[in-house]
What does this fold into?
Amino acid sequence: MDTEDNPVRLIKKYPNRRLYDTKTSAYITMEDVERLINSSENIKIIDNKSGKDITRGILMQIINELEDKSPRQMFSNAFLTQVIKSYGTDMQNTLVMCFNKTLDLYLSQAPKATNINKPSSKMDPNTYFNTVARDNISRWQKSWDNLKSKK
It folds into this structure.
């Protein structure tokens, strides 16, 4: 999303598989793209020849590389298998909604979690995360019940 505070940084992918950052007028690597993302840059990657937005594909490649390098993968084979099986089914929309709601919930609670180790915090980390987990389970149960009642 392009905003005044965070304009889109355009990156072009050329047929030789090289990525070109139009802001710096220089070729960059996938690791550079990862660094841009981690520094909260708003990026868009297009295929230079066709003009097609290929950002998602590049992001998936970066995730795949991170998964390969990480000693603890975020996405298990069982999880990925179920995601693949959901494509083209009624479950696909449900999973998309669940993923997005989970991410929104996590991002809304992340700032609170950074305060738990401060002296003014009245809860120890275990109590805090147990409380958050119970709250989240309750919210998800309500959401699931609402989904079932709409069918």
